[in-house]
Every structure is written in structure tokens, then in C-alpha cells.
Amino acid sequence: MCIRDRTQDDGGGGTTKAAVSWLLEQPFGPLVTALAGCALVAVGVAQMWRVKTDRWRSSIRLEDAPNYAPRIIQFAIFGRGVLFVLVGLFVTLAGRTG
H helices of the chain, where? Predict the structure, then answer.
């Protein structure tokens, strides 16, 4: 049985939280953080656009795949795009509030 002591828990966040904290302490840190957040949003939008235009099909072989596989792949890529947009928005917000 594994018991975890939650009194020392910092609430999660991992490497993104540590990287943003370090970056905000640097000269021009808030500006760079906001720009990095904007870049993450752009990557997320590009992923969602990739699903809309079906450009993902050129990088995956689907001949032997079941009929439902393309829909699952589209959902996964679009979900990854949404995740990038959300993280990017929060990183941008962190940069703006400094």
C-alpha cells in the first residue's frame, strides 16, 4: 500500500510552473513569458487547423485501419490543439500579470 503525504504537496504544475517562475524573474521576463504564451496559442491553433484541412492524413498510413480510426485521430489532434491554446493563454496571462 502506498500512502502519500499531502502536507508537502505544492499543488502540481511541474516543469511549466517552474519554467514560468524562473522566466518571470529574469530581465524582460514578463514580456518573454507573454510571447512564449502567444507562441503556444499559435501552435494550438495550427493543430486545430491541421484537423480542419485534413493535413494530418499525409503523415499517417490508414489503409489497414478500421473505419473509426480517422475520427479518433482527428479528435486527439484537435484535443491537443485545445490543450496548447489553454496552456498558452495561462502562460500569456502569467506574463501580463508579471
Answer: 14-25, 29-52, 69-97
88 phi and psi angles, rounded to 5 deg: -60, -40
Segment 11-37, tens digit of pLDDT = 555 787 888 888 888 888 899 999 999
Kindly provide the b/e burial profile for residues 8-40, where b requires at least 16 CB atoms within 10 angstroms of the residue's own CB: eeeeeeeeeeeebeebeeeeebbeebbebbeeb
What letter would DSSP give residue 6? G
Global model pTM greater than 0.85: no
| Whether 77 contacts 60, CB under 8 Å | no
